[in-house]
Fold these 2 entries.
Entry 1:
Amino acid sequence: MSDPVRFLNTFAQTLSVMTLYPEGHPSRERVIDAAFEDLDALYAGGQLPLFTFLEGEVVYGRQPLRDLRGWEWSARLAECGVGRLEFERRMTRDEFEGFLQEIQVRLTHASAGTSAQRQMRDLGVRLGAVGLDLEAVAVTPSDPAAVTGLREEVDTLHWMQREVLDGRAIPMLEAEAVVRSLTLAMHADSGMLLPLLQLKEFDQYTTTHSLNVSVLAMALAEALALSPREVRAMGVSGLLHDVGKTRIPLAVLTKPGKLSDEERLMMNRHPSDGARMILQSDADLELAAVVAYEHHIMLDGGGYPAMHYERGCAFGSRLVHVCDVYDALSTRRPYREAWPQDKTLAYLDERAGTEFDPFLVQAFSRLMREGAARVHRLDATGTPPAHGQQSPGGGRV
Ligand SMILES: [Fe+2]
Ligand SMILES: [Fe+2]
């Protein structure tokens, strides 16, 4: 019988028994067998087992497990950094035992090394903290070193955009290098999520926006416990989502006021242009191309480009879409002030289920509220910005 509560109880019991008996002891073997069987039964339920351990609550898939409200193991697991447990494939009995040993190591030494985490990945188990470790990404907005640290990335991205503008391929190695250094900045001890940066040059708006979306996408991906590789893939997708805008004349991008029909058509082509440019530059960047193509498509199918048949957008596109709109609305434009965080989050929330994926809005909201004091986006204050789609709330992205 597929029963997540039963599995977790056996799982916890197994971890306790394992501390009492050495490897090979019949009691230990028996209880591991039982947990393995219970896990196996979960696969039979048709979905890959996914547990999230929140404060005093356990969620299976998206279903809170009432019976386990206040379960002490939830807090214990969360405390040692296991906020989420996702079994991506069936394990062998030996692999399962190895996995239990790794959890045990984590429980006894609060933080397991990266090699242990890598081993987990090899086992097809994904685990991680829910939410960003905000202590580790605290921001010191006034820290000039932090700002100087990103200046190089801003310049590189700016240079990349000029390359594309001159008709050359997107410099993918540089894009990946920018994303790698953004992740390093996010995780540096004295680090930052996003420093406050004043950019005066108007054509750097898209640069700033792309860096912001890249970091926000990575922060959200990380909060959802995606693997470091997937997090970086989201970073590259965020960085390149608006690359199609380099084809739009600056006069149109920076035009204050309403766009003409012709200019609007030009603007609405940036997703498909961007996707084509990415694929022509590097066929391996399929995800970034898909995200570039889909980032203005709403959950209910609205937005652009128009879809020829009804289908859901890729997870990455839905994720970047949330970060994209958040950054656009939080930025000052000639026709409106920057929206405060509460207003922007309320906007996302209102449209969760129609424009945005509600699960992602919820996770994003939690991430931003938790980090409110420390998280700062790059700020292009005083910058006449580029224009994009007019969204229903008056934000252009
Ligand atoms: Fe866009
Ligand atoms: Fe955008």
Entry 2:
Amino acid sequence: MNARPLVLAAALTLSASLSAQPAEEPVLNLYSARHYQTDEALYSNFTKQTGIRINRIEAGDEQLIERLKSEGANSPADVLLIVDASRIAQADQLGLFQPVKSKVLDERIPSHLRNPQGDWFAFSSRGRILVYNKSMVKPQNVATYASLADPANKGKVCTRAGSHPYNLSLIASQIAHVGEAKAEAWAKGVVANLARKPQGGDTDQIKAVAAGECAVAISNTYYYARLLRSSKPEDQEIVAKTGVVWPDQDGAGTHINISGGGVLKHAPHRGNAIRFLEYLASDQAQVYFADGNNEWPTVKSVHVNNPALDKMGEFKADVLPIATLGSQTAAAQKIVDRVGWR
Ligand SMILES: [Fe+2]
């Protein structure tokens, strides 16, 4: 009926062949510390949109960093996706990333959630919340991170080890807000209030709270969200016995951590790598990236339809630059060692 599409197609072919540049092979080599089911759709949609095939290696953050260190300039990897501010900072300090200048990324990812030079970008965020036992403590008595060090809460606190990156980032945020001496006094107070020796992960702390072993624990939001979304009776029981506090709502706001990544220094497919990061900032990819682990998208205009996140409610997030957290990680580790948070 109309011959125009054909003409257009011919014109496109012509201009493509005229502007022939040394093309990158349509491949992206991805090292990822993420391992969520919805990531399959995340990656296959990228391939559908761009024709770029993704080769993926999944391992823990530390393993991937070690691998990149030993591969050096011979690394086939283009992009590293990693979890936690302190680990991203570690990768950055090792010089694993290269700076990326992208209008798309600079416009879509808020400046406090990316490296100022473009070494890395955050694509989802999680909060570090307090989960409390409803029959053991009143939420107003555990309304702040400072309350964890309050002598009134002696013997009531559960956490994982202080040297875990999630806690290092939290301590780093305390250093940034109140200075090293006060942050150390706080960490010392937390240790003095522990109900038991640090052990296990965040979910273990939530379980200990539900079991009455402690009254309050520190956890990332997505661990609690997972329980909220679970249909298992034992998980529903944990949810019924516990409540969530968004700490520091009258102060700096709840400490935020991130999952994100950057283009690697020796990326053989640099163009594809930038395209992939820009894709991760797109509306559709943001939903997959965040919702897959019950997290929040970092692109402000994108909203996930996640009943667990809705249930946990609105909160004021700390807008301290994630890059600042990374710069205080070493100081945070020293504090952990000095106060014996282990
Ligand atoms: Fe985690």
